[in-house]
């Protein structure tokens, strides 16, 4: 295991946790008989359908209508996974802190908008689940750091498509068949931008998303910061809903930066942001917002701060691998971005991989519970027509 871990780049504590996880979840993760598939269906004005083998849930209406449809179409069908959340709590060794996690999460969610709170309440009611399920799912990123994600943004001048390309791996512990429950959820809140989030059941915030203006955003978790800021500020807006507000309210990288600066932030994070013209990494803590622009027309990001005042001494093999592309001069297309993502995959940890085309508003996405998502087929979802239809509806 240690030799394999070194080959694929898993380090230190990750090896022990991976061994424990494989022992806990056993063969169903590695040899699933039948992958989970969300059933297609409709509820009110909302619909779940498959596009190029990607489940796409399209939600519209009032907060209550959106929440009810989400609970019915996204959470109810995932009952086996949702029922296993207590096992995930044990696996993450959070059982002694679970009460505190829910208490803090409840406090954080109280700082979201009334519309977001109404959605969460309606979803819990429709799914016949306790609200704490949604509290746990939507605030875990603020309260527990474990992910190891990677992103790469290719500016238009180095893109074969003529527009920017934004690649992202979501790396997270391989619990049960979690990756198979990936869902592209399109939201059209009243009076807000339509947007799509690559998400999981009960996660109604955003960790990877693109909106109708082509603005795209992702979250990479950070454990250390050099500005002596607290690791958690309970007066802040939880990360998943902070990113959701960016999707609902902003159209450019500059607007996203302004919103992030003027909103109280809970914890550390690297936010990779890209619009139709290009991208940046916005490094945030409760005290600081720093912006890191592209180098040689490529912007890369993993799980460490890199800007003055925030950077801490760190080595990351994934950053080094992506930097080789940054230092080159060749142009890149979607397959090339996927190859770069595959070069930094973390085996069973890489449960989602995706490429956004902000100018064309296209998503290419792969997900799995077996091996790395970068080695699985990517499905193309043309989100532009979906956004336009939702925005045109009365």
TrEMBL record:
UniProt GO MF annotations: hydrolase activity; transferase activity
Domain of life: Bacteria
Alphabetized InterPro entries for the sequence: C45_proenzyme-like (IPR047794), DCD1A/B-like (IPR047803), Ntn_hydrolases_N (IPR029055), Peptidase_C45_hydrolase (IPR005079)
Keywords noted in UniProt: Hydrolase, Transferase
Domain Peptidase C45 hydrolase: start-end pairs: 162-312
Transmembrane domains' residue ranges: none
Pfam families, sorted: AAT (PF03417)
PANTHER family the record matches: PEPTIDASE C45 HYDROLASE DOMAIN-CONTAINING PROTEIN (PTHR35190:SF1), PROTEIN DCD1B (PTHR35190)
Protein known as: Peptidase C45 hydrolase domain-containing protein
Organism name: Tuwongella immobilis
């Amino acid at each position: 295991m240690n030799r394999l871990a070194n080959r694929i780049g898993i380090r230190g504590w990750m090896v022990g946790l991976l061994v424990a996880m494989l022992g806990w979840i056993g063969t169903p993760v590695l040899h699933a008989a039948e992958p989970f598939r969300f059933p297609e269906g409709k509820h009110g004005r909302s619909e779940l359908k498959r596009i190029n083998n990607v489940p796409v849930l399209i939600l519209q209406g009032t907060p209550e209508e959106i929440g009810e449809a989400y609970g019915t179409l996204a959470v109810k069908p995932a009952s086996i996974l949702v029922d296993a959340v207590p096992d995930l709590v044990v696996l993450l060794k959070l059982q002694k802190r679970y009460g505190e996690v829910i208490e803090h999460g409840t406090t954080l969610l109280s700082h979201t908008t009334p519309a977001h709170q109404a959605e969460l309440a309606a979803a819990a009611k429709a799914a016949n689940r306790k609200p704490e399920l949604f509290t746990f799912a939507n605030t875990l990123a603020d309260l527990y750091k474990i992910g190891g994600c990677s992103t790469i943004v290719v500016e238009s001048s180095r893109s074969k498509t003529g527009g920017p390309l934004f690649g992202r791996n979501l790396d997270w512990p391989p619990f049960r068949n979690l990756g198979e429950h990936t869902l592209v959820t399109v939201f059209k809140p009243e009076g807000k931008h339509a947007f799509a989030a690559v998400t999981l059941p009960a996660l109604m915030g955003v960790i990877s998303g693109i909106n109708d203006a082509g603005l795209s955003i992702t979250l990479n978790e950070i454990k250390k910061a050099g500005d002596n800021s607290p690791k958690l500020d309970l007066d802040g807006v939880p990360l998943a809903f902070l990113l959701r507000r960016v999707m609902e309210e902003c159209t450019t990288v500059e607007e996203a930066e302004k919103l992030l600066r003027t909103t109280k932030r809970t914890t550390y994070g690297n936010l990779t942001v890209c619009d139709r013209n290009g991208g940046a990494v916005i490094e945030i803590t409760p005290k600081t917002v720093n912006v890191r622009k592209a180098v040689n027309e490529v912007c890369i990001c993993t799980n460490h701060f890199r800007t003055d005042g925030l950077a801490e001494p760190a080595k990351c093999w994934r950053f080094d691998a992506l930097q080789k592309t940054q230092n080159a001069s060749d142009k890149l297309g979607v397959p090339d971005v996927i190859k770069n993502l595959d070069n930094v995959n973390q085996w069973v940890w890489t449960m989602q991989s995706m490429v956004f085309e902000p100018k064309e508003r296209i998503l290419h996405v792969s997900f799995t519970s077996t091996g790395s998502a970068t080695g699985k087929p990517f499905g193309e979802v043309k989100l532009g027509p979906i956004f336009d239809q939702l925005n045109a509806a009365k």
